[in-house]
Amino acid sequence: MNDIITLSQKADALEEKMARELDYIVVKSRIYQLAEGDMGPPTNPAEARKKNPDAKVLMGDDPRLPAMPEKPTLMDFFKYRFGPSMHLLQSARHAVKGGLPEKMVLACLLHDISTAGFIRGDHGYWGAQLVEPYVDPEVTWAIRAHQVLRFYPDEDVGYEYPQSYITGFGADYAPDPYIQDDYKRMRNHKWYMSGRMITVHDIYSFDPSVHVELEEFEDVIGRHFKQPEEGLGFDNSPVAHMWRAMIRPAKYL
Ligand SMILES: [Fe+2]
Ligand SMILES: [Fe+2]
Hints:
The protein is globular and about 65 Å long. The chain contains 14 helices and 2 strands, in the order αβααβααααααααααα. Helix 5 (86-97) runs antiparallel to helix 6 (102-110). The protein is mostly helical. The protein folds into 2 domains: 7-57, no CATH class; 74-247, Hypothetical protein af1432. It has helices spanning 7-21, 30-35, 45-51, 74-80, 86-97, 102-110, 113-117, 123-131, 137-149, 163-169, 177-187, 192-201, 218-224, 240-247, and strands at residues 24-25, 56-57. Strands 1-2 form a two-stranded parallel sheet. The two termini are 41 Å apart. Residues 111-112, 123-124, 146 line the site of one fe (ii) ion.
């Protein structure tokens, strides 16, 4: 018998082990499956229950994740949901040093919250949408634009095409057509320079010795981010469900 265990067998075994050990059943969203290159069917709760008859399908808080307050603030998402955010904090401090107005410091602080907490592809568009009800329209516009402007140099402000893109994507990489189209629109927009400023302060070379605390920006957030009283995710805004998706990313329905 072939004793080589394939990666997918390993994953199945791990899932089974988890189902036995947890008293709840996790069914991954399709998008998580697709991100693994997995075109198979989702976990069948009835099948999973055979191994663990008392288990319930996860519909509430996920015990594997830190508990969120009932009325979560933006700061809570930084603390309990976003991955390491030093890039955002360093960008925001860089923006302060560059003399940017406060609302643009906030834009720098938030420009990559989608990669930090939600989804990577098109992160500028997703990130802008996440914050749209709570910030100045120029901040939203700039966050969306940084996604596009990142790919285009602007010598007037000393912004070069990132070396890391050449290394990471290849020298012959060209942005997708929708990015190219958006660039044409954004280049002539009245807020072009705001989007451009995010790219200027979007520093890719981190100084590991520089540590920035989120609290440094608490006042800026307080003044320029309209924190909903009910908490992010529970304010009946058009994007509330997106914040809830981060609170309970494995909720079954
Ligand atoms: Fe970004
Ligand atoms: Fe960034």
